[in-house]
Amino acid sequence: MAQIRRRWPLARIILRGDSGFCRERIMEWCEANDVGYILGLARNSRLVGRIEESLQQARVLYDETHGPARIFGEFLYRTLDSWSRERRVLAKAEHLDKGANPRFVVTSLSGDPRRLYEGLYCARGEMENRIKEQQLHLFADRTSAATMRANQIRLWFSSVAYLLMHAVRRLALKGTDLAQAQCATIRLKLLKIGAQVKITVRKVWVSLAGGCPYQNVFIQAYENLRRLTPLRC
Q: pTM (2 decimals)?
């Protein structure tokens, strides 16, 4: 944290995590070091009891609309033994097809409960999707070498590959059908295709099949990159 603040002294730092990080030592440290936090809070009978009325309202709303019903609220809460003080808890009283689905987070942040829950806390799920994308599609889980250093280098290679693929998606594929594609889709449809390579004294010729179904996307990606960095081709 000290290194981050030395590099970005004006940045606001917020810790976001699931209920596994909802621990007194973590929250107390954040409060003492000016670090905001929003953490999942495992539900229990006391928490559910605090939003019983909202859960009933959500059920009535679900019966009327036959669609997911959500009511957000907040209250101060302290565990019976582990927390040193009361803290702000955001509650989502939700009713779905399978029944009630109450959810809770504890936070030091101010603001509208729904905005904090849906806009900030739930966004951590998108980060998990990106981590999973690197693990599954760019082999970040292949850390079976005999030494820690070797496994670290493998993970570095995977991370560099992901940054490159993300740059291709963000810059080269902007405005194409693959602008939101996952790494595996980009590899399969844009990069993992057959080609004939011919090397002459002055140039390297790469000839792609005229029947490639994604040739227009490939051409558009090339033009997008060419506009960003002029190339002599």
A: 0.68
